[in-house]
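Minutes, project check-in
Item: structure for the 111-residue chain
Input as provided by the requester:
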Amino acid sequence: MSSLQNSTVEATPLVAVRDVRASAKWYATLLGADSLPDHAHLMPEDIEFGDDKSVFMTEKDAVKCEEFAGARHWYVPVSACFDGGEADALLDIVIRKIEKRDQASQGPIHG
């Protein structure tokens, strides 16, 4: 399996595999993609379609297919970027959840 980052692929018919929660950008890039359930346990038959078309998938799904994907299977690298204070807001949410979990695991405090 190969990454599309800094690669070229011949202009051939292709099949795109994505889960139902893939981003709108991914879907818009590869219209007509087959949908799979989010967090699906992918099997060889999920990425084999009985033809020789190239198969494209997200990097997240490609990790699940490493053991059985072939040379005609490609993945699109994915990265996430936060604008403005979004990273700080997300970090605050995560820290609050961790603190809440830690407090709950300590049980009631008796004095």
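Outcome recorded: Residues 2-76 form one domain.
No further action items on this chain.
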